[in-house]
Amino acid sequence: MSATDPANELAALPFEKAMAELEEIVTRLEKGSVTLEDSILIYERGEALRKHCERLLQSAEMRIEKITLGADGAPTGVTPLDADD
Fold this sequence. Notes:
Layout: H1 6-11, H2 15-31, H3 36-68
């Protein structure tokens, strides 16, 4: 096993790769072809991936809302999506 910190590795994972890995985990669990111990481990990884994807989606949603709506709910001017970077 590598010395890479799982939290840092997960934080750097793009949404598309995280979703692909999550889908692979779901498929493996549905097939039931893994041991109980492996099932627990990959389930835990799947849960971490789900939370990571949820955070990424919430972040994207907040950025879009910030760009498109002002405090009064009226549309605002157009600014780039990466304006916070």
